[in-house]
């Protein structure tokens, strides 16, 4: 393991707080993408000259970038996501709370509701079930503000033929 105090040592992961130009903040785990490559081993001058003459220059290197990776909390204005990130993308388990007070709790894939989850409206309405690409899709239960429940297959955000549960 490299000594973190050594000159030139770069942390590849950690935890901390990020501040974005928009005013948003993130507090949690992070990972460094595109870490600088280790310095090349010295080669004899003849090899260096041949390489320079025969090979095109290497493509420009992407600068290192710290991204949200692991568990954390992202806040922007009255919006809040608390959960898992994979290389700066909401993925895994998480809760997103909207400015309106609505909330999604469940599985995420590529920044979208995907898998099992619940969406809760401030007026008491609620959907519990399967999601695909941010839409209710698959088996689920919708409960209206009066407490009436409908169960069945949802398709692409709607629930034709739902059965009322008494």
TrEMBL record:
InterPro entries: MORN, MORN_repeat_protein. Residues 29-70 are annotated as: Disordered. Pfam families: MORN. Gene3D superfamilies: Histone H3 K4-specific methyltransferase SET7/9 N-terminal domain. It comes from the Eukaryota. Keywords: Repeat. The keyword Thylakoid does not apply. SMART domains: MORN. Residues 42-56 have a biased composition (Basic and acidic residues). The keyword Nucleotide-binding does not apply. One of its GO terms (cellular component) is membrane. PANTHER family: MORN REPEAT-CONTAINING PROTEIN 2 (PTHR46917:SF1). This is Uncharacterized protein.
């Amino acid at each position: 393991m490299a000594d973190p105090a050594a000159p030139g040592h770069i942390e590849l992961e950690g935890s901390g707080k990020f501040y974005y130009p928009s005013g948003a903040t993130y507090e949690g785990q992070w990972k460094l993408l595109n870490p600088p490559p280790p310095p090349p081993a010295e080669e004899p001058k003849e090899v260096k000259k041949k390489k320079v003459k025969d090979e095109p220059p290497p493509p420009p290197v992407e600068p290192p970038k710290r991204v949200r990776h692991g568990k954390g909390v992202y806040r922007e204005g009255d919006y809040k996501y608390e959960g898992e990130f994979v290389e700066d993308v909401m993925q895994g388990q998480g809760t997103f709370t909207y400015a309106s007070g609505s909330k999604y709790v469940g599985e995420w894939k590529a920044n979208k509701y995907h898998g099992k989850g619940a969406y809760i409206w401030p007026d008491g309405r609620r959907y519990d079930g399967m999601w695909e690409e941010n839409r209710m899709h698959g088996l689920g239960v919708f409960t209206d503000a009066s407490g009436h429940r409908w169960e069945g297959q949802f398709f692409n955000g709607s629930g034709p033929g739902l059965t009322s549960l008494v």
